[in-house]
Amino acid sequence: MPIAQNPLSVEVTLPREDVALLTVEGYLDVDTATEFQHHLANQLHHGRRHFLLDLSAVPFMDSSGMNIILRVYQEARDLPGSVHIIGPTPAVRRILDLTGVSLTVPVSATVDEALALVDRQTDPEAPDASPRP
């Protein structure tokens, strides 16, 4: 069996009980998307509702990776929950912008920024929930 040309590394941490932070490293493409999907499905199975996807170490993503993100976005939305993309590389950000994914799935610069968005979504009465000018 051939060794994968571009292995994917996914580290899962839990900043909160219902929040999974998936730190992805490597190419997110047709060869690795299934592995990424398994990590997300496992977290859904364990009751996570909010997904923070750190893509700062992903130099390339194709439509397979985008489809996984959009699929988990749809599933999380139905819970209700959320998906946030964190720190995409310029090449990945360009793909997200060109395809309109960044209009649907919020993109944050940092984990803390994404967690603040989760807080605003889960507690509409929070002071930070008001729209900013």
Automatic annotation (TrEMBL):
Start and end residues of each STAS domain: 17-118
A Pfam family reported for this protein in Swiss-Prot or TrEMBL: STAS
Gene3D superfamilies: STAS domain
Superkingdom: Bacteria
Membrane-traversing stretches: none
Record family assignment: Belongs to the anti-sigma-factor antagonist family.
Stated name of the protein: Anti-sigma factor antagonist
